[in-house]
Amino acid sequence: MPPIKHILLCALITSTYACNLDSNSNLQSNNSYAQLNPQQKAAQLKLELKQQEQASPLNYLKISNIKMRENIIQKPDLFHHTKTDGWLLEGTLYCNSTIAKFKDAVILVKFYSETQTEIGSSEYPIYKFFNPNSQTAFECKIYPPEGFKEFNAVLKTAKAD
Q: What is the pTM of this model?
């Protein structure tokens, strides 16, 4: 047999043997998962689901029922006018995760003029825990820019607990 054919034959046999070793090691790792008892399988699946949910909090959190009202600190009476101190941003944060808990959500609020021009934006943290399958009311004091007529609020970030 010429030397080139001999070298090619050796390379083919070596690569085939290496592929069989890789596939056997994959089978062994898959079999090790299959050899887990039902409680271990459930724990492993639960851990994987928790990691998946924690990796993308915004897929499992949403805000709704967003309202803004003046923060009245003194009601009018015979001798005084109404006193206000900024505005209150109120709403509900829904968490529809199965296992993962989240915390410290940040809401981005954009303020618009009468002509729909953005005149400012601010971020407001909500320092609360958000448990799986729950809804949490929130409220924060804000100071919008002068001349705003409308606003838009979106959930920007949150941390996994």
A: 0.70
